[in-house]
Specification:
Strand content: 35-45%
Largest sheet: 13 strands, antiparallel
Helix content: 10-25%
CATH superfamily of the largest domain: DNA Polymerase III, subunit A, domain 2
CATH architecture of the largest domain: Roll
Strand order of the largest sheet: 5-1-7-8-9-6-2-3-4-17-16-15-10
Distance between the termini: 69 Å
CATH class of the largest domain: Alpha Beta
Length: about 375
């Protein structure tokens, strides 16, 4: 029985949108599958890892199809479709409780599992709040803070990005307690205060799916989930249950010694001197000697090797000898694409505050190191 007969591109494009969250090893075998449902030529593709769910739909216009519902291995089906020519015609055939993928002389038989056994995440409660903004805006908010998220911290609330609505501002924050990244944008929601913590995997998947354009994203915030709808995609994610630390207390307010740095010039210096940094990432420190009109950058390793570089700056205050984690600096310079950053210090034992000149919608805080 032929279920679908259509061009390869009509199947692989929607399938690729949803397979990113499918894990190779699943507690429940069906979660390795994609749910495919056809209703009068409108085909739904849905995957889940029990914490997050992604679905998209496509319409078969120039081809044949009949209504069906089944689940099949998402990765295997994607790999099969990838192996075919871009303009190949593909038939999906159900035979002997298996799914056949046929194209020309190529034929693949895949095991299927019942669609009714697939665990679909639904949200029955009414959303707490709904936000609408452009894909590029939410993408930048997440991209500008995601690198500061903790990795597998026992304080589980640090393993995600805070998404907060605070009196007309949408705020994102990422921190591992050694550094903190803050980004915000104005929205049309006054007198609203709420927050959720998006898991790392959800954030990374959104950064792959969101486009850098002005098409809209609808964000619905529920007590235990968020739903994002954009570009014919619906992503549902559970949120991390926990209280996020008071991030505002970690942002310095008394740092009065400042200078500006060209992002690319500083990044290139750090890349050069890091060649002689310690191979142990936890100890990758860099010394910044801030003096009248120049910044000296020094890296040493445990083998007593040393790299030195310097650049001109506009600075006319007391000299400071500062030590920072070089990875924390390069993460910022790689992920936040602006021309210039402003560094603000108080003394060598206090946190450094990094902002974008003329803007108050981004802040990055790094604790000093002792090296």
């Amino acid at each position: 029985m032929i279920l679908i007969k259509t061009n390869r591109e009509n199947l692989i494009k929607p399938l690729q949108l949803v397979t990113g969250i499918v894990e190779k090893r699943q507690t429940f075998p069906i979660l390795s599958n994609v749910l495919i449902q056809n209703n009068e030529g409108k085909i739904r593709f849905l995957t889940s890892d029990s914490e997050m769910q992604i679905e998209t739909t496509t319409t078969i216009e120039n081809g044949k199809s009949q209504n069906f519902s089944l689940t099949v291995s998402a990765k295997k089906m994607q790999d099969i479709l990838r192996s075919l020519d871009p303009d190949a015609e593909v038939s999906l055939i159900k035979k002997d409780e298996k799914l056949q993928i046929k194209s020309g002389k190529s034929l693949f038989n895949l095991q299927i599992l019942p669609a009714e056994d697939f665990p679909i995440i639904t949200e029955e409660n009414q959303s707490t709040e709904t936000i609408s903004l452009s894909q590029s805006t939410i993408r930048n908010l997440l991209s500008n803070v995601q690198y500061a998220i903790a990795e597998q911290d026992i304080r589980y609330f640090l393993n995600g990005v805070l998404l907060s609505v605070d009196n007309g501002e949408l705020i994102t924050v990422g921190t591992d307690t050694h550094r903190l990244a803050f980004a915000s944008t104005l929205i049309q929601l006054n007198d609203v205060n709420l927050s959720v913590i998006l898991p790392r995997k959800t954030v990374m998947e959104l950064l792959k799916l969101l486009k850098d354009d002005e098409t809209p994203v609808k964000i619905e915030i529920f007590p235990k989930r968020v739903i994002l709808e954009f570009s014919n995609i619906v992503l549902i994610s559970k949120v991390i249950d926990g209280k996020y630390p008071n991030f505002s207390r970690a942002i310095p307010t008394q740092n009065d010694k400042t200078f500006d740095l060209d992002r690319l010039s500083f990044l290139h210096i750090l890349q050069r001197v890091s060649i002689l940094s310690n191979s142990n990432e936890l100890l990758k420190g860099v010394r910044l000697l801030i003096d009248k009109s120049k910044l000296s950058v020094i890296c040493k390793n445990t083998e007593q090797e040393e790299a030195f570089d310097e650049m001109a700056i506009t600075y006319d205050d007391d000299a400071i000898d500062y030590s920072l984690n070089i990875t924390y600096l390069t993460d910022l310079l790689n992920y936040v694409s602006v021309d210039t950053f402003r560094f603000a210090f108080s003394d060598a034992s206090s946190s450094v505050l990094i902002t974008i000149p003329g803007r108050d919608d981004f802040k990055y805080v790094i604790m000093p190191m002792r090296i």
